[in-house]
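Hey, I was hoping to borrow your eyes for a little while. I've been staring at a protein lately and its backbone has me curious. You're getting the sequence in one-letter code plus the fold written as tokens. Would you mind checking whether the tokens look sensible for this chain? Here's the protein in full, and shout if anything looks odd to you:
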Amino acid sequence: MRDLGMSFSSDTKNELCRVEPQQCCRKAECYGLLLCGRNFSDAGVSLVTENRAVARRAARFTAETTGAVMDVSSSVLHKKSSAHSYTVGAAGAGEARKVLAFLGHTGKEISLRINLGNLENECCHSSFLRGAFLACGTVSDPGADYHLEFAVPYMNLAKDLTGLIRDILELDLQPRLARRRGSFVVYLKGGEKVADFLAWLGAPVAAMKMIQVRMLKELRNNVNRQTNFETANIGKAAAAAAQEVLAIEKIRRVSGIRALPEELRELADLRCRNPELSLRELGQRLSPPLSRSGVHHRMKRILEFSEKLERR
């Protein structure tokens, strides 16, 4: 059985991999894929992913954009599982240097930063972040949570990602930064914010699914709240009816029902025979009919009569 969170995240990445960006955006997405991959230095340029579509896209975009030769390999993650891990890497140190030089890096940076020169136009920002998400991002299944994150190994790179997301003015996002097990995590929370961001990256189907799940959750919560409210009211009504029946039975036992004023006897008899009825329903069965407030007033007199019997 597939993990629901990984399934939604994987489906989202598959959808993003069907986006065909223009040439300037292709370079930006390639940059996001590699910069946020496993290794981006003169020791090698590589990306590791469990998504085959992401691996193929990274290899194709890098070869087409930089002209470097890329190797793709796969391995089984677990003996009892059919899941694979895919590694996309430059074929040797010379090819890695070609990639780095093309993207304006030396490979000797102590702390990686985003080279904004690779984001030539405004449209390139979404492509770069799409590549970064494909490389190091995940999104939770909306049935469980509304959470999207990027996990990178460098603090300054994480800060740059945070700033780039915050600068998407039309979305008004509020990304947060945290440290987790040696990585720096940039994350978004909230169904509306995450859905808007996914649509902006190029995954409208995933965004729509998140919106639909969110609406269904809200509907269920509203129904549950209403049900709980009605259940509480039913419980209160049942407790009140039980108290009324006990009071009337005490009157019968101690002084007899005829001790009640005539206008209260019919109500007392009706309540004992119909403990499940509401005050409104009791009033409708009286002759002549009586309003709910009228029934409440008479029932209060019956309870007071019963209390007086105790004080005798």
Summary: The mean pLDDT is 87. Residues 204-254 form the longest helix (51 residues). The CA atoms of residues 195 and 208 lie 7 Å apart. DSSP finds eleven helices and eight strands in the chain.
